[in-house]
Design brief:
single chain, alpha/beta, Rossmann fold, Alpha-Beta Plaits, 3 domains, seven-stranded mixed sheet, four-stranded parallel sheet, 41% helix
Length: 428
């Protein structure tokens, strides 16, 4: 579709130090992103500016210097650690004679590589099309365009207009298909709510160790690697928690500072798992010097997807890389768990996570003895199926005496099914 230079495997990274906090990016993060995308970094160029220039983002002298380095190091792609305008991208490509990618384009490329499910692929394509639609400016300079005057008129629709129309049509088609997926997810969520199954969603900065923790808790075997955005497609698994029963645990895509809006919009259906969760396990890499900054960035994205008010439990991960750190649960003044210290890689603190979940999600427990006649064997079967029986005895009349312990929610469900008959079975 484009008269553009092809992307490549040998890259030069460009980082500009800008004074404004909102525009500042992390160079080490760009290098991790480049590694995650599979390109080989040939060189890193840094510069400082008070503000970006409209033409090249960097100054014209620095742009020529980048072009010289491309030629010298035989690189075939230049990656900027910033968001470039379509014009800046085209001007840089013209001077460097190779593909130029900005931070958003790089993240989109990684997402495209990681998508495995049909839904994930659709979401990535949607984000890419929205991004590309802004890059159609002067994308076809080598082709005929409409011109005024006799003998100079072009076809009825310019190539640029054709491209825009095709992209709009494709976006519309993808949105329809994603709407179907969203309805299916909504049905699943409604069924879980009806069954009173709590949902816990793992969130956190990319590469904080969410998938490793997910695998430790559920033995799911989800792909986990020491790279940015190893997980893209959401995974849901059941997790058994004492006194609560089954809990749905959701592993979600990692967040990153200045997460492209196109991605946030495209992954709305996926991120809804986070929005409608009963509890968020916010996984933090405590060995990272930028941990507080990362926590703030995650909080920012959670606000953006309307999940800022969902209760959170901080999971301080990678304690094996912090001297003197041990698995433990930190409590607030009301003795409610607020932090759990773990090493998902080493399997340390997993019991503490489960205990914290039990304390936070655990409803009021009901403990009593039920005298069950043989004619009510179905009730006995239900109690055993719910793992609510702690002991069982037979009295001299041949009646069963069951010691039961269950949540008040389960007791209400039982009461709804058996009514006052259940009260008559309770041993006072």
């Amino acid at each position: 579709m484009f008269d553009r230079y092809e992307g490549g495997d040998y890259a030069i990274l460009v980082h500009v130090d800008l004074p404004a906090e909102v525009d500042r990016e992390d160079l080490s993060e760009l290098q991790l992103l480049a590694d995650s995308s599979g390109v080989k970094t040939m060189g890193v160029m840094t510069t400082s500016r008070n503000s970006p220039t409209p033409r090249y983002f960097v100054g014209s002298g620095k742009a020529e210097e980048i072009a010289e380095q491309v030629k010298l190091l035989d690189a075939n792609i230049v990656i900027f650690n910033h968001a470039l305008s379509p014009t800046q991208e085209r001007n840089l490509e013209a001077i460097c004679k190779c593909r130029v990618l900005d931070r958003t384009g790089l993240i989109l490329d990684i997402f495209a590589q990681r998508a495995r499910t049909h839904e994930g692929k659709l979401q990535v394509e949607l984000a890419q099309l929205r991004h590309i639609s802004t890059r159609l400016v002067r994308g076809w300079t080598h082709l005929e365009r409409q011109k005024g005057g006799i003998g100079l008129r072009g076809p009825g629709e310019t190539q640029l207009e054709t491209d825009r129309r095709l992209i709009r049509g494709r976006i519309k088609n993808i949105l329809k298909r994603l709407e179907k997926v969203q309805k299916q997810r909504e049905q699943g969520r409604r069924a879980r709510k009806k069954a009173d199954i709590p949902t816990v969603s793992l969130v956190g900065y990319t590469n904080a160790g969410k998938s490793t923790l997910f695998n430790r808790l559920t033995e799911a075997g989800v792909y986990a690697a020491d790279q940015l955005f190893a997980t893209l497609d959401p995974t849901l698994r059941k997790l058994a928690v004492e006194d609560i029963g089954e809990v749905i645990l959701a592993d979600t895509v990692g967040f990153i500072r200045h997460l492209p809006h196109d991605l946030v919009a495209a992954f709305k259906a996926t991120l809804q798992e986070t929005q409608e969760a009963d509890l968020l396990l916010h996984v933090v890499d405590v060995s990272d010097e930028q941990q507080q900054n990362n926590i703030d960035q995650v909080a920012e994205v959670l606000e953006e997807i309307d999940a800022g008010d969902v209760p959170q439990l901080i999971i301080c991960n990678k304690i094996d890389q912090v001297e003197g750190a041990e698995p433990r649960i930190d409590y607030d003044d009301n003795q409610k768990p607020i932090r759990v210290w773990v090493s998902a890689q080493q399997g340390l603190g997993i019991e503490e996570v489960l205990e914290a979940l039990r304390q936070i999600l655990g409803p009021q427990m009901v403990e009593l003895t039920l005298k069950i006649p043989h004619s009510m064997g179905k009730l006995r079967g239900t109690l055993y199926r719910w793992n609510s029986v702690t002991s069982e005895d037979v009295n001299e009349n041949g009646e069963l005496a069951l010691q039961v312990r269950m949540s008040s929610v389960d007791w209400q469900r039982l009461h709804k099914a058996y009514g006052n008959q259940l009260d008559d079975l309770v041993v006072q």
